[in-house]
Write a sequence for this structure.
């Protein structure tokens, strides 16, 4: 569980970096890293969507911040 959560969060951080580069420079880094293949880019975006859903589920189901007040 911990390994899959770490992979999902790392995936979302990489997507955030690619989005930041695109927002500030206009260069689509994700498209470049997918070798200009739109199908591969959509597959990566779909994987990131599933990673975000898993991270949201993990926060709701396991409540890691329950003891912090």
């Amino acid at each position: 569980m911990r390994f899959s959560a770490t992979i999902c969060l790392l995936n979302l951080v990489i997507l955030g970096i690619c989005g930041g580069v695109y927002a500030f420079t206009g260069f689509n880094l994700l498209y470049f890293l997918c070798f200009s293949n739109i199908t591969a880019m959509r597959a990566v975006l779909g994987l990131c969507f599933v990673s975000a859903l898993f991270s949201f589920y993990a926060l709701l189901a396991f409540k890691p911040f329950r003891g912090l007040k």
